[in-house]
From TrEMBL:
PANTHER family, per the entry: HTH-TYPE TRANSCRIPTIONAL REGULATOR YBHD, LYSR FAMILY TRANSCRIPTIONAL REGULATOR
SUPFAM superfamilies given in the database record: Periplasmic binding protein-like II, Winged helix' DNA-binding domain
Domain HTH lysR-type: 3-60
One Pfam family in the UniProt entry: HTH_1
Source domain of life: Bacteria
Name of this chain's protein: LysR family transcriptional regulator
High-level lineage: Bacteria, Pseudomonadati, Pseudomonadota, Alphaproteobacteria, Hyphomicrobiales
Keywords: DNA-binding, Transcription, Transcription regulation
InterPro entries the record matches: HTH-type_LysR_regulators, LysR_HTH_N, LysR_subst-bd, WH-like_DNA-bd_sf, WH_DNA-bd_sf
GO cellular component: cytosol
Keyword Cell inner membrane: no
Source organism of the structure: Sinorhizobium saheli
Molecular function per GO: DNA binding; DNA-binding transcription factor activity
Keyword Transcription annotated: yes
Family indicated by similarity: Belongs to the LysR transcriptional regulatory family.
């Protein structure tokens, strides 16, 4: 079976996405090229690796076995490169990091900056995902480090405390909801709403609204938390943002900030990595840096394994 590393990366991407189309995009291939390569892999192996259906693909028993070995091989290759890179004049390499919306926008930029300055030859590939997708992707070996909510299933992962992320409602100061001590998501029904254009947080909010039978149709969608606060200050409507963003914006804008009373609105974010695989030296270094830069009051300083 003459599989190469590109074959393994493609197969992992398809397995994660459950779709050849999305897997091909992740691997940087066109759909025809990815489909042909997967067919060649099956021909070479002499066994079917994927069951193709109208809603995507699932792994056969042979595909599950290949996924396991592909993940191990790619992890070992990454570790080999990291160890060899230590003998170079400068530390070189790339760390793959997955994070939810709040972590990407509010917590990671300031924490990643000093590490990137200290290691000018190192790169970070960071992608936004929902917490459940992050846990699955880390478990499958698609990235070395994740930042996710501890509300999702994390069996097989090592968790390290990072920050506490609280979601709040922002509204004009004279808004009817501004008189309340706190609000629930259902209270936003029928209110002019300002949403995000896309991303893991908006998907999370849409899912929570669906759970209580609420359909929120934004008047406008914007790209960032500051934009939501700015529009709320101008009287456009209400929105939901991380508390850190609301506090920052409240210093310069006329907004009311109210906590959301639902349990899901308070999320403890953790750094995660696979429990059964050693990280590359570069990834381990970054993980330790992020743990050292975490929010001090969020958790006691220890490790949690689930």
């Amino acid at each position: 079976m003459p599989f190469d590393l590109s074959d393994f990366r493609l197969f992992l991407a398809v397995a994660e996405a459950g779709s050849i189309t999305h897997g091909a995009t992740e691997a940087g291939l066109s759909l025809p090229a990815a489909s042909e390569r997967l067919r060649e892999m099956e021909t070479s192996a002499g066994v079917k690796l994927l069951d193709r259906g109208r809603r995507g693909v699932t792994l056969t028993e042979a595909g599950e076995a290949l996924l396991h070995h592909a993940r191990l091989i790619l992890s070992q290759v990454a570790r080999m490169r990291g160890e060899i890179g230590q003998f170079a004049k400068a530390v070189r390499g790339t760390v793959r990091l997955l994070a939810n919306t709040a972590a990407m926008a509010e917590f990671l930029p300031a924490r990643l900056a000093p590490w990137l300055v200290a290691y000018p030859q190192a790169d970070i590939v960071i992608k936004e995902r929902q917490s459940a997708d992050i846990a699955r992707s880390i478990a499958l070996g698609f990235a070395e480090i994740g930042v996710l909510s501890d509300l999702v299933e994390t069996t097989g992962l090592t968790l390290r405390p990072f920050v506490t992320d609280r979601l709040v409602m922002v509204a004009p100061r004279d808004h009817a909801l501004a008189a309340r001590r706190h609000v629930r998501l259902a209270d936003l029904g029928g209110q002019p709403y300002i949403g995000l254009t896309e991303g893991a947080l908006q998907d999370h909010l849409d899912a929570q609204a669906a759970r209580v039978g609420l359909r929120i149709t934004p008047r406008i969608r914007v790209r960032g938390f500051d934009d939501i606060c700015r529009l709320a200050s101008a009287g456009v409507g209400v929105g939901i943002v991380p508390e850190t963003a609301a506090r920052r914006c409240r210093r310069a804008m006329q907004i009311s900030v109210k906590s959301l009373s639902e349990d899901w609105a308070v999320r403890r974010l953790s750094l995660c990595s696979r429990s059964d695989t050693e990280l590359t030296p570069l990834a381990q270094n970054l993980l330790e840096h992020l743990e050292g830069e975490r929010e001090g009051q969020a958790f006691p300083r220890n490790q949690h394994k689930r």
